């Protein structure tokens, strides 16, 4: 009978213990949207401007990696359908570079220009455009649209 009570106490102790894993909410992150715009300067070659609009809708400041070591990451990929494609984790910037601190409620726009020489390196066709930014909490990627290369004449 004593062995039965000991077993019951041991089982009760283990049953009262919760899981040993800690569950955490994902870190706060920015809202991100992106767009592309073809520009035809007077007397010059056309280029593609890709912009990312960031908004810190959280209650904490968030750092965004910027600068020459970590410009706005832009990925063009052949895509005849013009459908969005994911951004891989290899686009994240190394820690320790310059950052832009966005306070709660702040917004900013980051822009990257793909010049005519860069665009000329792509075969003619439809391309999807993705944008990625590295923050102090995550790598965030978003669809920026589709573009037909070579760029057609001005609208």
Can you give keywords for this protein?
155 residues; mainly beta; Immunoglobulin-like; 3-stranded antiparallel beta sheet; 2 helices; 8 strands; 39% strand
Major sheet strand order: 1-2-6
The biggest beta sheet reads: 3 strands, antiparallel
Helices and strands, in N-to-C order?
A: HEEEEEEHEE
Q: Which range best describes the helical content: under 10%, 10-25%, 25-40%, 40-55%, 55-70% or over 70%?
A: 10-25%
What CATH architecture label applies? Sandwich
* CATH topology type: Immunoglobulin-like
Q: How many distinct folded domains? A: 1
Radius of gyration (Å): 24 Å
Mean pLDDT: 80
CATH level 1 name? Mainly Beta
Terminal CA distance reads: 91 Å
* Total helical segments: 2
Strand content: 35-45%
Q: Give the overall shape.
A: elongated
Helix vs. strand class = mainly beta
**Poorly predicted segments:** 5-18
The number of strands is 8
Molecular structure report:
There is one protein chain. 13% of the residues lie in helices and 39% in strands. The chain has 155 residues and is mostly beta strands. The protein has one domain: Immunoglobulin-like. The strands form 3 sheets. A 3-stranded antiparallel β-sheet has the order 1-2-6. Strands 4-7-8 form a 3-stranded antiparallel β-sheet, with no helix packed on it. A hairpin with a 7-residue loop joins strand 1 and strand 2 (47-55). It starts with a helix and ends in a 6-residue tail after the last strand.
How do the strands and helices of this protein lay out in sequence?
Blueprint: H1 2-16, E1 31-39, E2 47-55, E3 62-65, E4 73-78, E5 99-102, E6 107-114, H2 116-120, E7 125-134, E8 139-149
Antiparallel strand pairs: 1-2, 2-6, 3-5, 4-7, 7-8
